[in-house]
Amino acid sequence: MDEKKVVLGLSGGVDSAVAAKRLRDQGFEVYGVYLDITDEDGVDAAKRAASELNIPLEILDIRDKLEHHVCAPFAASYLAGKTPLPCAVCNPTVKFPALLDAADRIGAKWVATGHYARTDMDEQGRARLLRGEHTNDQSYLLSRLTQEQLQRVIFPLGDYKKTETRAQAEENHLSATDRPDSMEI
Q1: Distances (CA, A) of 71 to 37, 65, 75, 113
Q2: pTM
Q3: How many CB atoms lie within 10 A of CB 107?
Q4: For residue range 136-155, what is the model confidence (pLDDT) as tens digits?
Q5: Nearest by Cα to 182 from 136, 148, 150
Q6: What are phi and psi of 27, to 5 degrees?
Q7: Based on the number of CB atoms within 10 Å of its own CB, is 145 exposed (0-12), middle (13-18) or buried (19 or more)?
Q8: What is the pLDDT of residues 25-38, one digit of tens each?
Q9: Side-chain half-sphere of 89: how many Cα atoms within 13 Å?
Q10: Closest CA relative to residue 114, chosen from 86, 141, 93
C-alpha cells in the first residue's frame, strides 16, 4: 500500500474540501469518494470541490447498506421510544468500510474524512481516537470505529476550529466556503 495515497470522503462541504486541501499540502495524493445517498445537490457539490481541488472523484452508491444498517434500525429504535445516534452506527458499518474498500482498490494506505477528531498510537501500537478541538469535537460520532479502521484513518481537521476551516476555504476560493453545515438526519 502506498503511504502517500489517501481516499477522502468528499461530501462537497467545507470540512471535506478543506481536509482535501490540507492533505494535498502535506504531500498526499488525494482521491475523493462521494458516498451517494441520492442527494443531487451533494453530488454536484462534491464534483465542484473535486474539480476545484483537481482531485479524482468516485461516486459510490451506499443506499442499500445505509437503509439496512442505519435507517431501518434508526426508525425501529425511534419508534420504540429510544434516542438513536445513527452516525455512530453508520461510521463503522457503512461509511468507513466503503472508504476502506475504495482505498484497497487503489492501493492507498489511508482514508480520511472532515470529522473534527484526532488519532494517535499508544505504547502498544494500538490506535486511539482522541477528541477534536473542543468547540466542535466529533469523536463521539466515531467512537465505534474498530481498531483496524482507526489504524488507517487520518483526521486533518482535528486540531482546528470550524471558523479556521471556513477561513481557509475562503482564502483558497473554494465554493464550499458558504455551504451550510451538515445536520445528517
Answers
A1: 11, 9, 6, 21
A2: 0.93
A3: 9
A4: 899 999 999 999 999 999 99
A5: 136
A6: 95, 10
A7: buried
A8: 999 999 999 999 87
A9: 18
A10: 141
